[in-house]
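Example 9 (inverse folding). The structure is encoded as follows.
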């Protein structure tokens, strides 16, 4: 009797799992970047000016 699905070779990953992993990684990086973003008031207090 034939199996209704193909067996996956060991050592290979499904594209969906890789994409999900990348999405998790991007989400974590975005949260980390949020810790380092300053408000305009904080930038003024720190003396950061963007050309104006």
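The amino acid assigned to each position is listed next.
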């Amino acid at each position: 009797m034939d199996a209704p699905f193909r067996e996956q070779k060991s050592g290979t990953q499904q594209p969906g799992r890789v994409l999900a992993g990348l999405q998790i990684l991007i989400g974590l990086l975005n949260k980390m970047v949020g810790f380092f973003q300053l408000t305009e008031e904080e930038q003024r207090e720190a003396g950061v000016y963007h050309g104006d």
